[in-house]
Write a structure and sequence with these properties.
This protein is mainly alpha-helical. The protein is 89% helix and 0% strand. It has one domain. The chain is built from 3 helices and no strands. 0% of the residues are buried.
């Protein structure tokens, strides 16, 4: 009878250990699936973030390129206007030095008094 009791207790202990093992295995599988789902979600989020970074970088570089082109255009316009100003100042000095000689209106003088519509329109667009 004592042997039967020990056998029964051993069987119950083995069954309890097997049940614990099965429960732990199920918990590991559930945790593994949760981890797998989280990795998938984070991978998708990383991909979206990388795409946004790529687009933002591309847009930034495009704007930087356009900005430099506008700046170069403005610098050329500034240089042209400064040369024109120097020319006008030189003519003014000459007129003061030699007032008896009438100077015909040059194309530059007409440009100063009446700006071309195209130039003013371009300037307005650049300001925007």
């Amino acid at each position: 009878a004592q042997l039967e009791e020990q056998t029964r207790l051993a069987k119950e202990q083995v069954e309890a250990l097997l049940e614990d093992r099965r429960i732990h295995q199920e918990e590991r599988q559930v945790q593994h699936q949760r981890d797998k789902d989280r990795i998938t979600a984070l991978t998708d989020k990383l991909q979206r973030t990388q795409n946004l970074l790529h687009e933002s970088t591309r847009d930034f570089l495009q704007l930087k390129f356009e900005s430099r082109a506008h700046e170069k255009s403005w610098m050329l316009e500034k240089d042209r206007l400064l040369r024109e100003l120097d020319s006008c100042q030189e003519r003014l000095r000459e007129e003061r030095t030699f007032p008896e000689q009438p100077t015909p209106l040059s194309e530059d003088a007409l440009f100063i008094t009446q700006p071309k519509h195209e130039t003013s329109q371009t300037h307005r667009e650049e300001i925007r």
